[in-house]
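Bench notes, afternoon.
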Amino acid sequence: MLPVEHDDPINAKILAISEDKIEGFVREPFEEIAKRSGADVDLVMARIAAMLRAGTIRRVRQTLLATNLAEGALVAWKAPEEKIDNAFDWMFQRDPFSGHVVLRSTDTVTAGSDYKLWTTVKVPHGFSLQQHCELLSKKVGAERFRLMPAKGIFTLGVGHVRRKTIEPGSKADQPAKMIPVQVVDLGEDEWKVLLTLKREFSPEEIRSTPWAGRAKEAAVSLDEFYRIAEQLNARKIIGRFSTFLEHVKPSVGGVRVTRFNALFHWVVPPGRETEAGGEVGRHHILTHCYWREAGPEFKNVNIMAVAHGTDKQLLLEHKAAIDRHLEFSGIPVSYTNVFWGGRSEIKPSEISPQVYREWLREMTS
């Protein structure tokens, strides 16, 4: 039996690379993980497959910059207390276009603290995000919702294992560069390759030349699959090749990757969002950092970031270091807050227009 906990020394060495260091499309992703982690490729594949079977790794997949393929937003939902759990279950189980589904709370009653259900939602181009959320509202009995589409992305990754040892204030030498959100149209062959490319890997698929089976599934040659995938990569549609740890629930051995999930909020002056996002996003502890307009319900918050950890106080120290850095950088902050994650489920959001049409027919029939 191979060790399957994330804190096993060899697994930790592999995960430090495989979680979020393999950028873009790579023809031999497991060889690249091996090369960069210093582990033998056969050992890398065996360990990743074992962790996936055990549930330590939740999924292995090629991620996409889906903001360029589907209209998306972070959505905060206000629902009666007695309906919150059912709303959570419905969005996780019945809506393939909702990705992260999280119950959040604040340490004190504050702006927006009555919005307890938070989700990420994406709908394919040609469909309405507003109408989608109105339909979800009716299905779950929500009173109100607030759409917060990303206007810019500064940080997008995971890397929970390597972030365990990061000290408060640790940051990159340069500010994070903002990735603008832009619409990309795809042709039929590109969609065929993309939809097979993004599907999760089974343990049996973790082997050399892993894309050969996907090329066959897309009914193209392997060379053609590579050509289209690399073309999609050049168009900034491909994210990372990632092994996603189960970071919400304990492993089969009772080991937790994280215990706390913090959503940080800041209000910076209009016109300084790009600068502020760059200064916040350069901090190594953050897995996500966005420019989003949260509106008056949340005191007009415009910079948001996410950090995970096993120690709540340490996460607050990380935030305090970011706050000090913003002050040092001359960026005024008129309001800040932390929303803590509780119950949480995560799945990839579907982005296929065909799947959306079929789902919509089922929901409205």
